Amino acid sequence: MLTFVSAVSSGKGESVLKAVQLLWVNLIMDTFAALALATDPPAPSVLDRKPDRKSAPLITSTMWKMIIGQAICQLGITFTLYFGGVKLLPYLDYHSIEDPRLNTLVFNTFVWLQIFNEINNRRLDNKLNILEGLSKNYWFLGINVVMIGGQVLIIFVGGPAFQIVRLNGIEWALSIGLGFISIPFGAFIRMIPDRWVEALVPNIPLPSWLKFKKKKKSTDDEAGGPSKPLEDGSTSDEDSISPPLRSWTSLRGERARHHIHRGFKEYMHDQKEKAKIKALVVTGSKTHLPPKTPPGATSTSPAKAA
Q1: For the domain bounded by 2-42+59-200, which CATH number is listed?
Q2: Where are the domains of the chain?
Q3: What pTM did the predictor assign?
C-alpha cells in the first residue's frame, strides 16, 4: 500500500521504497522474523489457554484484530512522515517529498516498525507480557541482532546500491521512536475485547453449496455397529465400543491389529496365563505346564493338583 500510493502521488512515478529496499524488507519479514518466531519456545502460560475446537479457524479474531490494527498504525505513521515530513519537520530542511533524506527516513522508520512488531507478535493471545521467556531464546536474540546490524550497515554504507543517504542522530532517534510506537499500540489493541471486533464484522450468510454438510450417524454407527447380546439378554459394553481408526492400528503394529476385536477380559486372561507359564519355566517345571483354559473356566495350579 505504501509503495503503490507513494508511486501514484509522486511526480516522477517513483516509489518511496525502491526495489532493493523492498527485497531487504521482505527478507526481514519473511525469513528472519519467521525464523525468530519459529525458534521461540512456548511459555508455560500456554497451558492456561483453553483448547480450540476442531472447527476453529486458523486465523482467529484476536489475530485479525492485531493484523488490521498494526497495518493501520504502520500506514498512518509512514504516510504522515512521507506526505507531512516537509511541514512537520522544518528543522531537518527537507525540500520536497522526493528528498533522498526524507525517503531514507521513511525507509528506516518502516524497517524499525517491522522489528518492533516482531517482538509484539510473540504472543497470539490478549495478554500484555510480550517479553515472557525472551532472555532464554538465544536464537531469537541473535536473529534480531543480525537484523538490526544489517539495517545499520545499509544506512551507513548502502549508498547508491540502496538509493539512500546517511541519517544524522535526530533522524535515527525519530526512526527508532516512531518504530517503537507499534509496541504500545499493540498493547492497546489487546485491550480491545474480541467480541467488539466480531460485532463490527457483518454476518454474511453463505450459499448452501458452500456450507459443509456433516453426515449424521445413527446410533448403531456411533457405537461401532449393533451391540451383541449376552446370555442374560443384556448388552456388552465392551462390544459396543467402536474400534480405533485403521491408521492408528497400522501405526501401532501387528499386536494392535491382532487384539483389535478382543475384549479386555480375554486379553488379561491371556496375560495371566503367560505369566504363569514364564514362572514355571524359570523354576524348572517346564514339563508340568498348565493347559490353556477358556476365559470363563478356572485353572488349577500344579500345587493344588498334587
Answers
A1: 1.20.1110.10
A2: 2-42+59-200, 263-293
A3: 0.64
